[in-house]
Amino acid sequence: MEGRKALPTTTVLLILAVALATVGVGYGLWSKVLTIEGTVYTGEVNAVLSIEEIDEGDASLVSDNGINEDKEIEGKDVGECTAELIDVPPDLVNKGPQLMRITIRNGYPSFSCFVNFNVQNLGTIPIKVDQPVLSGVDPDALDVAFIKGSLGAGGCYYNEEPPGVPVGDVIPHPQLEPEDMIFCTIWVHVRQQASQSATYTFVARVLAHQWNEFSGPHESLLP
Amino acid sequence: MRHVVPTSVVILLVALGTVGVGYGLWAKTLTIEGQVHTGSVDARWTGRVCSEFNSWPDLPKDDEDDGEAEGKDVGEWSVTIDPDDDQILHFTLVNGYPSYAVDCQVHFKVEGTIPVVVRGTSIIPGNGLTHCTLDDLDSGNKKILRCDQLTVIFTDNLGSQLHPGEEAASSVTVHVEQAAEQEARYEFDIGVCLAQWNEEATAAECFAAAPSH
Question: Partners of B10 in the beta sheet?
């Protein structure tokens, strides 16, 4: 019986070489993985109110001098106007005072109160500040308006000026960099038709939003 | 077909952009709340001091002038604050007769929270009085109502200013004239109008604006 013919030596060596080469590829591929890890820390839009000055009395008698003045007729002190800042709610989202409460007590026809206030960007994103939106004013009993100093020109806002220096033109939709602030005055006047021993209320809301979004009115976003 | 693809892309971008505005607008609302509590103008009568006298047309100067003639007690006076409205003072003479005269100091107090000024006074003749004339003397501080049956004099300080809680006095003098009839009833009204100190107003404007009783 004749056995199976063995492979030629050359063929065996060739197969062995190919097999070894194959194993060599598997163990000898040097490699490197590059990774990109992404972390995005968003900034925040935050704005706060602050009070500069509270004046009582006729517009012709008070001035923007950084001092609270009581200039009621004949030097009397009959009506009282106060403004206070309130943190609501005092949590991490709403940092800083975002509510200002103006209260007039013992008001009478012709009594006026002027509250000079600032809107300041305390966030990390530039913001644009919309004009205040008033609601709830009884037009028979009160005049409530945002004015230029005590001169009656309409609207907010103005660049802050040193005491005694008139403010410039109205800036209808100012942009504030972080830490920047803008200035305005709210005027509350008791009209002749106001009733005695009555309480009248109003609300004004100021929307501040990041500078790069749609610049139109955002009244629909107001609560 | 070439233009369809770019148009679709534009529409998609606009749609996404719109969604981005709606959801991506970071905003903060600052609120200003206002409350106005108005004060009040209010006053009420608080009392009176009255006396009869017999020296008409002069006011009493000494004890002899006080009381009715010859020391009699014929006529009666009554000055009372209305129990339902302390802004009304009832001045009543009973069993009066020609020459009967009464002089009163009437007091009122500012009960409101706003300073007031006396802007005007008035004397209005009522039932039974005829041929009445009203004279203003002393820049309006003294008003004299002369009728056939009665003479009424009211004196006040027009323009005087009163602060909350302060009191003031006025003077009322009534004299029964010769033409008064027996068993008759004569009526008159005196008004004092107060308005807040900081508004200029005539007496007529003051009375017109005041609530009626």
Answer: none
Residue with tokens 């020391």: B71
Phi-psi region of A92 (alpha: psi -120 to 50; beta: other; left: phi over 0): alpha
| Block residue for tokens 């990774």 | A35
Question: Do B151 and B59 touch, CB atoms closer than 8 A?
Answer: no
> In the predicted model, what is the mean pLDDT of chain B?
87
* pLDDT tens, residue by residue, A118-138: 999 999 999 999 999 999 999
Interface contact B57, partner A, CB < 8 A: no
- A24: region left, alpha or beta (phi > 0 left; psi from -120 to 50 alpha): alpha
Report the C-alpha gap between A118 and A129 in whole angstroms: 11
Residue A217 C-alpha, separation from nearest chain B C-alpha, in angstroms: 12
E strand or H helix that includes residue B21: helix B4-24
Q: What is the DSSP letter of B43?
A: E
Contact with chain A for residue B25, Cβ under 8 A: yes
CB-CB contact of A83 with A50 (8 Å)? no
At residue A165 the predicted structure's pLDDT band, cuts being 50, 70 and 90, is confident
Distance separating alpha carbons of residues B203 and B190, to the nearest angstrom:
13
Count of residues making up chain B: 213
Instruction: Report yes or no: A200 at the B interface, CB cutoff 8 Å.
Output: yes
8 Å CB contact between A160 and A171: no
**Region at A106 (left for phi over 0; alpha for psi -120 to 50; beta for the rest):** left
d(CA B79, CA B48): 7
B33 vs A203: CA distance, rounded Å: 5
Backbone angles phi, psi at B102, to 5 degrees: -135, 135
B27 and A208: CB-CB below 8 Å?
yes
The answer to whether the Cβ–Cβ distance between B30 and A221 falls below 8 Å is: no
Kindly provide the ipTM of the predicted complex, given to two decimals.
Answer: 0.75
Assess contact for B18 and B61: CB atoms under 8 A: no
Distance from C-alpha of B34 to C-alpha of A204, rounded to nearest angstrom:
8
In chain B the first and final C-alpha atoms are separated, in Å, by: 87
What percentage of chain A has pLDDT greater than the value 90? Answer: 50
- Name the region of A151 (left: φ>0; alpha: ψ -120 to 50; beta: rest): alpha
Integer angstrom CA distances of residue A37 from A33, A41, A43: 13, 13, 19
Running DSSP on this structure, what letter comes out for residue B128? T
Q: Which residue has the tokens 């009555």?
A: A198
* A89 against B97, higher pLDDT: B97
Tell me the C-alpha distance between B176 and B154, whole Å.
Answer: 15
